[in-house]
Write a structure and sequence with these properties.
ScpB_csome_segregation, Arc Repressor Mutant, subunit A, 196 residues, three-stranded antiparallel beta sheet, 9 helices, alpha+beta, cytoplasm, cell cycle, SMC-Scp complex subunit ScpB
């Protein structure tokens, strides 16, 4: 397969899949080696980085996903009618920060840190796809644990959890960075928008 054909095939698969997908899975579908597909992904990312393009190719740890560029978020929101997607509440940001920095954690751990019941907030974050169940902990009662998702990474403009701001007194916590706009917001489909 020629490079242009391969780029077209990878682009089509990324568009159709809609969720983050690994280079290995793309390579398997194309019956090609992963290194070649990885080079194609980087070439596509360069192509989408051009100013006239409305999309961009995100690398989320070991996966790739097509997304709209931030500068086109308003018209995309209008066409998708995302009025129900409100910014994350303070409680949701607190729970999300606790999970992001300590994952996998149980709801009990989150509630112990916050000092209040967090079941409804955890449920909203699960519904929005920002967190997911990550198995059961080896503790009495084997509580369900939670971890962040690729949607979380995309929402806060991170490629991996290693890019989370450090937890030092002189650094802004995650919720303050989001409030000040220092963590970019990406355009999400209505079912994956920010929580209230």
């Amino acid at each position: 397969m020629e490079l242009k054909e391969c780029m077209g095939a990878v682009e089509a698969m990324l568009f159709a899949h809609a969720e983050p997908v690994s280079a290995g899975r793309l390579a398997q579908a194309l019956d090609m080696d992963e290194d070649t597909v990885e080079r194609v992904l980087w070439a596509l990312q360069d192509e989408y980085d051009r100013p006239a393009r409305g999309l961009r190719l995100l690398r989320l740890e070991d996966k790739w996903q097509l997304a709209t560029k931030n500068e086109w978020s308003e018209p995309v929101k209008k066409i998708l009618d995302t009025r129900r997607n409100t910014p994350l509440s303070q409680a949701a940001l607190e729970v999300l920060a606790i999970i992001a920095y300590n994952q996998p954690v149980s709801r009990g751990f989150v509630e112990q840190v916050r000092g209040v019941d967090s079941s409804s907030t955890v449920a909203k974050l699960l519904e929005k796809g920002l967190i997911e169940e990550a198995g059961r902990l080896d503790l009495p009662g084997h509580p369900v644990s939670f971890a962040t998702t690729d949607v979380f990474l995309r929402t806060f403009g991170l490629e991996s959890l290693a890019q989370l701001p450090p937890l030092h007194d002189d650094e802004l916590p995650l919720e303050q960075l989001a409030a000040t706009g220092e963590l970019p917001e990406n355009t999400l489909p209505p079912s994956e928008g920010a929580d209230g």
